[in-house]
Design brief:
alpha+beta, Jelly Rolls, four-stranded antiparallel β-sheet, three-stranded antiparallel β-sheet, 2 helices, 16% helix, globular, RmlC-like_jellyroll, RmlC_Cupin_sf, Cupin_2 domain-containing protein, Cupin_2
Amino acid sequence: MSKLIQYGAVLLACFLLPPSARAEQAYPTQDLLSTQVTVTGEEIRYPTSGPARVTVSIVTILPGTIAKIHRHPVPLVGYVLEGELTVDYGNQGKKTFRKGDALVEALNVPHRGMNLGQDIVRILAIYLGADGIPNVLLEETPQP
């Protein structure tokens, strides 16, 4: 019976706390990123052309890999799980992202990632897209 009283007291205490305190105690969080713009300063816009589609991927980039120039027509939230990735945004410069970094990748700015280090890069990628819209579009490169 005493355990029942203890559980009841805990449950009652939870309901007596204000909602914000209940949420903090139930699910502690650590915000990694809160932004309204991409890494290149673009306003984040969600596609409205079809039903929403969220895709969650782990992107693995081997040492020495240089990606093809591409862009993302849908918002991409990334979190670097391991390694260090340098991204070339053309005339907007280069940025380096390391383990523990969170970012919203450029949308309409063509770019390419480069693993210039000796270790594998792994990124948790969350695409906030829509049916019928690819998450990545390769850019046409001029032929010599």
